[in-house]
Amino acid sequence: MGTSTRLVHLGNDPHSFHGFVNPPIVRGSTVLFPDCATMESRNQKYTYGTRGTPTTDALCEALNALEGAAGTVLVPSGLAAITVPFLAFLSSGDHALIVDSVYGPCRYFCDTMLKRLGIEVEYYDPEIGAGIEALLRPNTRLVHTEAPASNTFEMQDIRAISDAAHRHDCIVTMDNTWATPLYFRPLDFGIDVSIHATTKYPSGHSDIVMGSVSANAAAWPRLLEAQTTLGICGAPEDSYLILRGLRSMAVRLDHHQNSALAVAHWLEGIDAVERVLHPGLESFPGHEIWKRDFKGSSGVFSFVLKAATPDQFKPKAHAFLNALSLFGLGYSWGGYESLALHVNLNDRTIRKAPSAGPVIRLQIGLENIEDLKRDLEVGFRAAAAV
């Protein structure tokens, strides 16, 4: 079946719910058992609200099908979707390799909580590829990837990294929020645990915060054990809305992709732009990996705004952003509205910030492209005046 057809029908069995096309929202904490023997053995599908309801299960089933996963857990945020598998597979004395271009809050978690737990964290260049094998130690237990990279969009050779890590019995995790399972399926490229901020494109309407973690058969039992032990779970109401968002995700993502590429190509011709950071552009260094492994691109990318000296970086970036009216100033993305922000890359240890100017990240929403271009032109004029 085609992608849109699958999304319309995944996680949905109307005849199980009196013919209603959407699964109902089942809320609950307490679940009753018919007798003591069943209670003692927990020999029934539902035992307590934190272990899932028919609503959360419907979303998990849909995500399993999209990811090709043995199992999926739902958690309250995209950050929790990263931290739960880290806690599942890492112990005191272990060594973890984290891509240097990682999502900022993930780095903070690694540098604070993981280190307090006695886990050694080392960052690596996103473009290292098979060369990551030289960094693997006898106590390396986890390699975390993110492709493309947060904010600067470097591509990673996921298959090469996974193969190298597995030769040393390491778990490999990937934050796949940018591409979604529609444009890249991590488990097909050797990833053990696929992480997704369903806050973004699955929701699509900027009104839900949730994360999902999908695992292959080997990693699934330990992931499930960690989620159960930590008592972290997704809410039925949010699951219902994510399921609703999934039905239109292919259509929305296609629009985001086409609009973002159109704006990115247009930005390449703007004199005030030093370079555009989008894997879908032939000018981008990671384009060949993206073209080889990915089926599409989403609506988020960055560009470097020209500035003569470093002391102009912030004033020019702020002038540009403050002049925008259609692009909102916001941290998230994946919703219907366009967003922009000045990227902070001060936490990088290997892949440093560009030296030619500030990095501006754009989320291209569902607005008309010409309107967005006009809004950006106003921003460029304001930056030029600084």
TrEMBL record:
<comment type="similarity">
    <text>Belongs to the trans-sulfuration enzymes family.</text>
</comment>
<dbReference type="GO" id="GO:0047804">
    <property type="term" value="F:cysteine-S-conjugate beta-lyase activity"/>
</dbReference>
<dbReference type="GO" id="GO:0019346">
    <property type="term" value="P:transsulfuration"/>
</dbReference>
<dbReference type="GO" id="GO:0019450">
    <property type="term" value="P:L-cysteine catabolic process to pyruvate"/>
</dbReference>
<dbReference type="InterPro" id="IPR015422">
    <property type="entry name" value="PyrdxlP-dep_Trfase_small"/>
</dbReference>
<feature type="modified residue" description="N6-(pyridoxal phosphate)lysine">
    <location>
        <position position="200"/>
    </location>
</feature>
<dbReference type="GO" id="GO:0030170">
    <property type="term" value="F:pyridoxal phosphate binding"/>
</dbReference>
<keyword id="KW-0456">Lyase</keyword>
<dbReference type="InterPro" id="IPR015424">
    <property type="entry name" value="PyrdxlP-dep_Trfase"/>
</dbReference>
<keyword id="KW-0663">Pyridoxal phosphate</keyword>
<dbReference type="Pfam" id="PF01053">
    <property type="entry name" value="Cys_Met_Meta_PP"/>
</dbReference>
<dbReference type="InterPro" id="IPR000277">
    <property type="entry name" value="Cys/Met-Metab_PyrdxlP-dep_enz"/>
</dbReference>
<dbReference type="InterPro" id="IPR006233">
    <property type="entry name" value="Cys_b_lyase_bac"/>
</dbReference>
<dbReference type="InterPro" id="IPR015421">
    <property type="entry name" value="PyrdxlP-dep_Trfase_major"/>
</dbReference>
<protein>
    <submittedName>
        <fullName>Cystathionine beta-lyase</fullName>
        <ecNumber>4.4.1.8</ecNumber>
    </submittedName>
</protein>
